[in-house]
UniProtKB/TrEMBL annotation:
Origin species: Gracilibacillus boraciitolerans JCM 21714
Name of the protein: Cytochrome c oxidase subunit 2
Main location (coarse class): membrane
Phylogenetic placement of the source organism: Bacteria, Bacillati, Bacillota, Bacilli, Bacillales
InterPro entries: CcO_II, CcO_II-like_C, Cupredoxin, Cyt_c_oxidase_su2, Cyt_c_oxidase_su2_TM_dom, Cyt_c_oxidase_su2_TM_sf
Keywords of the record: Copper, Electron transport, Membrane, Metal-binding, Respiratory chain, Transmembrane, Transmembrane helix, Transport
Matching Gene3D superfamilies: 1.10.287.90, Cupredoxins - blue copper proteins
Residues spanning the membrane: 41-69, 90-112
The protein's Enzyme Commission number: 7.1.1.9
Domain Cytochrome oxidase subunit II transmembrane region profile: start-end pairs: 23-121
Keyword Transmembrane in annotation: yes
Pfam families found in the cross-reference section: COX2, COX2_TM
């Protein structure tokens, strides 16, 4: 088989996979279309990180291509040794300081939103729900109302709702990708996080800890208004 035919076959296979896989997933089960407070914060940090990475990629590629073009060996220069730049203090300072600045650009919003999402100052005056993780389902107990639900969690729009989470067996991880970040649900200590949704709808949740054989089953959870 000719070489180019193999390349075309590989390319067709990958194009086919891209088309098929791009339709995967459920609506409201993605952190890339944020519809809640926590997921919006995560999404903004993802965007900042991608922009920083694109900036680094472009700068590196421009320098790389420029150096390849400008400093390639010319005819008659086989034994020519160009001026060596090792130990150049200015260059070393520049390529140490630039990554530090880029990391600060990512770190500041990340740390700010980590503290923001851990804020419990409004917990007392908000709806509190005790979440119990089990193999393989979730139980929701509204602490101020005499209501319990399982698998379906109902909350109001644009209001912070605090989830006090514990597991009755193994470690689970509670995640509503469109609404919030993840939180581990442990058997021996209570973890708290708040969720706030911006739009009415049905959202889906996942346990992201491999909590047992049936981990992949049943793990859909609805948020209804
Ligand atoms: Cu689980």
């Amino acid at each position: 088989m000719k070489k180019w035919m193999g390349k075309i076959r590989t390319l067709s296979l990958f194009s086919f996979l891209v088309i098929i896989l791009s339709a995967c997933g459920k609506e409201n089960l993605t952190a890339l279309v944020p519809k809640g407070y926590g997921s919006e914060q995560s999404f903004n940090i993802i965007l900042i990180s991608i922009l920083v990475m694109i900036f680094v990629f472009i700068v590196v590629m421009v320098i790389y291509i420029y150096v390849i073009m400008k400093f390639r060996q010319k005819k008659g220069q086989e034994n020519y040794v160009p001026k060596q730049s090792e130990g150049n203090k200015t260059l070393e300072v520049v390529w140490t300081v630039i990554p530090i600045l880029l990391l600060i650009i990512i770190a500041v919003p990340t740390i700010a939103s980590t503290y923001d999402l851990a804020d419990e100052s409004k917990k007392e005056d908000s709806i509190n729900i005790n979440v119990q993780g089990m193999q393989f389902w979730w139980n929701f107990k509204y602490t101020n109302e005499e209501i319990q639900t399982s698998q379906e969690l109902y909350i109001p729009v644009n209001e912070k709702v605090y989830l006090n989470m514990m597991s009755s067996d193994v470690i689970h991880s509670f995640w509503l990708p469109s609404i919030s970040g993840k939180m581990d649900v442990n058997p021996d200590n209570e973890n708290t996080m708040f969720i706030e949704a911006f739009e009415e709808g049905v959202y889906w949740g996942k346990c992201t800890e491999f909590c047992g054989g049936d981990h992949t089953l049943l793990w859909t959870l609805k948020l209804l208004w």
